[in-house]
Specification:
This protein is mainly alpha-helical. The mean pLDDT is about 95. The chain is globular, with a radius of gyration of 16 Å. It contains eleven helices and no strands. It has one domain (about 1-185). Helix 1 runs antiparallel to helix 4.
Length: about 200
């Protein structure tokens, strides 16, 4: 019963659409500008650096807080991970947006920050390197999260449950980026900082 309640809490936390909230404070409907996505990348394109930073922090904290609550209440690592997955799903399918949402990258990083700190840092570094070299945020997410299960296996070994959670996170992120993959192949994907 406790885990079911915590999964609901995780999903509810993940559902809070910080990008929409930040944009609304600026008088902008984020769903109608840029890519229409609720994440920090679209906020950056549409509203600038500070709104994007606030969105990024909020989306990261959703994942971190969800996992932290699970740990505080004595959940085993596997169940902590499931609560984190619930937060990611909440971001992707927000109850406040008719079960639509973002791509879950920042929230996934937030989950990893508490769930597997060293791997979260490695994932973030890989994302930054790819984005720095290519200027494509989506490609950074695809590469860094595509490698996540391998990095968990190499740098946080000994817990098959964590590897399973890492595979689930990778699948969720890659699935949400399937349209980006098509645009990348066609050469029509927007670059970071490119104005909407």
């Amino acid at each position: 019963m406790k885990i079911i309640l915590l999964l609901i809490v995780g999903f509810s936390l993940g559902s809070v659409p910080f990008g929409i909230i930040v944009a609304k404070l600026k008088g902008v409907n984020l769903k109608k500008v840029g890519s229409g996505n609720i994440g920090a990348t679209n906020v950056l394109r549409s509203l600038g650096k500070w709104p994007a930073t606030l969105t990024l922090i909020g989306d990261i904290l959703k994942g971190t807080v969800a996992v932290a609550i699970g740990r505080y209440l004595g959940m085993e690592p596997f169940y902590e991970g499931l609560i984190g997955i619930a937060a990611i799903l909440g971001h992707n399918c927000s109850i406040f947006l008719g079960f639509k949402g973002g791509k879950g990258v920042a929230t996934s990083i937030g989950v990893l920050l508490f769930y597997s700190p060293w791997v979260s840092v490695l994932t973030l570094i890989l994302w930054l390197i790819v984005v720095f070299l290519t200027k494509y945020s989506s490609l950074g997410a695809i590469v860094s999260f595509g490698l996540l299960p391998i990095n968990i296996f190499l740098f946080d070994p000994g817990d098959k449950g964590k590897l399973f959670i890492a595979i689930l996170i990778a699948v969720l992120v890659l699935f949400r980026h399937r349209d980006n993959m098509q645009r990348l192949m066609k050469g029509t994907e927007r670059k970071v900082g490119q104005r909407a």
